Amino acid sequence: MQDYFLRLRTVLLRLLGRVLPQKWVKLGVVLVAPVLMISVLYLLPGSGDSSQAARSGLPAIHGPQDVANMPYDYQFIGQGQITGGSEEVWIIGNVPIRVAAQTQLASELHVGDFVVLTGRILQDKTWLADRIQLTQEDETYFTFNGPLEMIQESLWQIGGHSLVVEQQTEVGDKLELGQILLTTFTAPEDSTWIAMKILAFDEFPAPPVIILAEEVIPTPVPVEFGVAAPKITNNTATADKVKVNWVDLDQKEKEKSNNGNSANRDHEKDEDDDD
User: Fold this and answer.
1) Any idea which of 16-20, 33-37, 266-270 has the lowest mean pLDDT?
2) CA proximity to 248, closest of 217, 231, 227
3) Predicted local confidence at residue 224, as pLDDT
4) Residue from 133, 137, 136, 109 nearest 119 by CA
5) pLDDT number for residue 227
6) Which of 107, 156, 197, 255 could form a disulfide with 184 if both were Cys (CB 3.0 to 4.6 A apart)?
7) Who's near 20: CB < 8 A, 6+ residues apart?
8) How large is the average pLDDT for residues 13-42?
């Protein structure tokens, strides 16, 4: 490396010596040499982030958009409420979720929204979301797969995460250290992961199917005067799609009253004729 810079210095001196006085040439070399040294070191093979990443066995990350290209070991699905975070890391159901440029957002999302999401667990334990979309469910849970690494009384370590196993936790039979497990948990506000179900991993479950229900119209309740309102059997239709022939109750009652009065008058007339 030292010989390389000596040769470079000699070439520069010869080139500049033909057009500049000797004192200016020496001053220029003194000022420019450090800059050239830094630039060449950065460009040489084996330098820079890319080579350092290659030596460590990990790909280089040049920006948030490249995080989706990192290798991953496991997957997750879940749903919960967006409670905060930053532009790149959202807190969903009290779990930090990485959101990259490739993350598909099905709609405009805001803090307070309940969402369902799917994603991958990277080798550095980052939970990277592949897709996030709104849901009408307000239940919070996550399901992920990972190896069983430790069991210490009620504390299990699975895939690098500690989970509390309680009496109501559903635990599969004959689970062993190193075995890949499928774990469902919920995370209260104190950041403790409470295991709901731990089973041997067979295959990853399909993500939840999201059906955005239309506005629900309740079935009308019966009305007065013994006349029941018509029943709407299609309770998932919108108001524009449902046509109901409502009964004019006032008019019905008036007709009933008029008929009664007319019958009374006829009866009184018959009695007068008999007299």
Assistant:
1) 33-37
2) 227
3) 40
4) 133
5) 39
6) 197
7) 28
8) 54
Alpha helix stretches (DSSP H) within the chain: 2-17, 22-43, 48-56, 249-274
> How far, CA to CA in Å, does 172 sit from each of 78, 185, 193, 225?
21, 15, 18, 60
Name the band, by pLDDT with cuts 50, 70 and 90, for residue 185.
Answer: very high
Compute the CA torsion angle 151, 157, 159, 160 (nearest 10 deg). Answer: -140
pTM for this model (two decimals): 0.52
Kindly compute the dihedral angle of the four CA atoms of residues 108, 86, 80, 216, in this order, to the nearest 10 degrees: -20
In order, the DSSP letters of 232-245 are ---TTS-TTT----
Paired tokens of 176: 């062993």
220-229 average pLDDT score: 38
**pLDDT recorded at residue 186:** 95
Domain-wise residue ranges, the chain? 2-44, 65-134, 141-200
Backbone angles phi, psi at 78, to 5 degrees: 175, 180
Asked if 32 and 12 count as a contact pair (C-beta separation under 8 A), the reply is yes
CATH architecture of residue range(s) 65-134: Beta Barrel (2.40)
What does the DSSP 8-state code read for residue 64?
G
CA angle at 164 for the pair 162 and 170, rounded to the nearest 5°:
120
Q: Which of 3-12, 124-133, 238-247 has the lowest mean pLDDT?
A: 238-247
CATH number of 141-200: 2.40.50.320
Please report, in angstroms and rounded to a whole number, the separation of the first and last CA atoms in the chain.
141
